[in-house]
Amino acid sequence: MNIENAQVQMRKGILEFCILHIISRGEVYASDMLDELTSAKMMVVEGTLYPLLTRLKNSGWLDYKWVESSSGPPRKYYVLTEEGKIFLDAMQTTWFELADSVKTVIHRTEELSKSDTSKSS
Q: Which residues belong to any copy of the Transcription regulator PadR N-terminal domain (predicted)?
């Protein structure tokens, strides 16, 4: 596996979490999600986002409503359901636990690396 593939897989693993977080702030239009994810360097395209939004809706974690637009066709705005809020809370707990675990492993690796360096001096 090359680094680009590894990076893509890592991003895919947290994309759902990030999308739910964005939607948790209030009604949001898909292109606004794309803009935010792109500015956060998540490198998401419409072909990835829309199927994920459909899957999240089918899971009962989000819903949408149509809003008339003065500059074109109606827009679909996404919102979290109560089940989605509960799911996001559970994901956030998991995220913090996982982030702490990864930090622990990295910190220990750094400690051992410093120890090895000082022994060889």
A: 19-88
